[in-house]
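A quick aside before the break. I want you to see a complete sequence-to-structure record at least once, exactly as it would be stored in a machine-readable document. Don't worry about memorizing anything.
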Amino acid sequence: MDEKYVAMDVHKASVVIGVRNAAGKMISRATVETKAQTLKDYVRGLSGTIHLTFEEGTQSAWLYDLLRPLVAECIVCDPRRNKLLEDGNKSDEIDVDKLSELLYLGRLRPVYHGNHGTRALKELAHNYEALVKDQTRVKNRLKAIFRGRGISYEGEEIYDCQQTEPWLAKLSERGVRERARQLYQQLDQLAGWVATARRQMLAESRRHQAKKILQLIPTLGEISVAELIATVDTPHRFRSKRQFWTYCGLAVVRHTSADYHFEQGELRRRAKAGPTRGLNRNYNRRLKRIFKSAALTGSTKGPFKSYYQGLLGRGLSSELAQVTLARKIAAITLTLWKKGERFDPEKLVKPD
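That is the input. The structure line, written in C-alpha cells, reads:
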C-alpha cells in the first residue's frame, strides 16, 4: 500500500516538511512558506494515503482545519510527550525526521481538536478570560501603590472608579498620583469590556443544547457552564470518568513496583495499594479551576453539602474531602452530559 508519513515543523515564516514511505524510509524533505495555499498545494501533490502530524502550538488549530480534509489521518501531537525530539542535536530537519519516525511507529499522543461547532464559543471564552486577567493585573498594580505607602483600605472600595478623587488625594507624590489616575482609567475601561465579553460568551453558550443540562447541576454557574462547553466540546471524547478526571487534574497518581509475588507456587498480586503521589500534573487548568470552585461552593450549601459532610465523617481531611467532591461533581457532569439527563439530587449516592 502506498502510504506516506508526513511531519511538519511549523514556524512563523516557514514550514519544514519530512516525508517517509510505507517502509519507514525518509524519501523527501522540503521547506515552504507558512501560507495556506502553499501548504495545501504541497499536500495535494503527495500520492497515496497521507498520515500527517505537527505539534500543538499557536498555529495548530488553523493548520488542522486547513489540512484535515486533505489527508487520511491528521494528528496534532503533544510536544511534551515527544521525548525523542530532546535527544542529541537539534535542527528543523532533525526534528521532522524524528517526528515522522514517531508517526510511523504510532508513538504520538494526539491533542484533541474539535469541530467548528464550538469554535466561536472557544474564542469568546478566551477573550473573556484574557480581559479578566488584565483587570486583575490592573487591580493588583493599583492596590500595590496604596499598600506601599501605608494607606489602608477595606474590601473592594479602592476599586470604585466613581470615587477616585478621594483616593488620589491621599497620594502626595505627583508622579505616583498620575500613575494611579491612569490605572483607574484602565480599570474603568476594562470593566466595560469584561461585561461585554461576558454577555457575548453567555449568549453564544445558549446556542448549545448542553447548557440546558449542565446549568441544572448545583454549584455550576452560567460562566462555568459556558467555559465547560467551550473546553470539553463533546463529552464523548472521554470513555470513562477516570479519563475525564485526568483531563481535569483530579486523577490520583500512584507509583508501584514488584506488584506480584509467588505464594505456595501460585502467582498472586499484592493486596496493598501502591503509595499515592498526589494528583496528575498535566491537565487543563480551566477545568480544574471550575470543578475546584464548584466543590468549594458545594461543601457549604446545596445537595452536595451532605455528601461532603459524609466524607468528613469517614475521617477524611477537609482538603481531601474537597478533592473527592470535585471528582464527584466532574463524574456527574460527564455522565449527565453524555446521557442528556437532568440532575436529580435523589440519585446522589452518599459515601459509605
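Two observations worth writing down. Residues 174-205 form the longest helix (32 residues). The domain at 3-105 is CATH 3.30.420.40 (Nucleotidyltransferase; domain 5). We'll return to this after the break.
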